[in-house]
Structure prediction request, 374 residues.
Amino acid sequence: MATMQFTRRRFLQFCSANVVLPWMSSLFATEARSSWAFGIIPDTQWWFNAPFHGTAIHVIDAINVEFIRQQVDFVIQIGDLAEMPSALAFQTRAAHNQSLTEAGIKFYPIRGNHDVPNNNPKNLDDQAMKQAAAAAQFTAAFPDLPGTSSVGSSPDLPGAAGMTYSFTHNDGKFILLDTFPMVDDNTKRSKTYTISDYLPWIEAELKRDDHRFALVFAHKPLQGQNHKDILFGENLDSNPEMQNAFMECLQRNGVRCFLCGHDHLYHHSRVKSPDGRSEVDQVICGSASHKFYLPALPLPERERPIAQELMRIGFVIVRINDDRISFEYYSARPFGAKPQTPQWELQDAFGHTQDGQSFGEPAETMKQFFRPER
Ligand SMILES: [Fe+2]
Prediction:
């Protein structure tokens, strides 16, 4: 009954949810630290002619209420803030962080594909001008991000400051990657940096002795469920050498969880590199908009699905306690046109304890993960 599975809340979990996160052992290798948490809000991009300038303000407001109630230290948004880039769209999105700001909660966004102009200009000058305008609108709405001052770091690449960046908080390091067109202030031409361009900086950041654990974020997945355009190119197998190098870097430096958006669904899996030598947990963090996608063919072959939920709004809280780190996914019935007070439900929680024991095995497991017929 695939139709039923798609049209009603569907939460699928695997027997294989016995997740192994070896980086946790190093996280807890030294003395215990105080408990703290941060939030991740997925795509707030709505459709073109939606109200509120294409950003899901009522969903944002409702999720922020929960972030404040759960006392997160900061919030990361993993791209697609609005349907289309404009000063008004970004300012509208930023204005709906007011409650976070008043609670002392910082907001760290990166851009998604909807936050840059369509890449179909009539000429290069027109393209560069539109991309420059959109990038300026983004930085005006979200000023002072790490890498633009003494706080945090950005790659030493033209236009990358405050767009791709890293920062530390307590014992964690957070690396956020923007793979969309930036503007070189010298040439005024746009430049889209690839993961290969960023890799030396990522490596250097992960090698710094300023954190006990690190997480990496980008808008597009390593391997998508609906979208086939990924972090490395236009299909699941694009640039395999780049995929291998990136995942090898994460694995070698103890990063075992990559978090992303783009698919407007929740999907937790373990992804292998094309050469099979590296693997990383991937969390596609859901949808914070009344817009959803369904898994589509071809589905990734190089991943082990662990948990999935479709057609619900949601968010993620990462909690670091004295003896454990946990990734918690909450969701609720969709809404958007009017303010609502959602009934949030904790749908997935996984992680590791100090002694290396995994937790988060579901009480109920499904022997088969739902997949459309190939
Ligand atoms: Fe996207």
About this structure: The pocket of fe (ii) ion is lined by residues 80, 112-114, 219, 262 (CB under 6 Å). The mean pLDDT is 85. The radius of gyration is 19 Å.
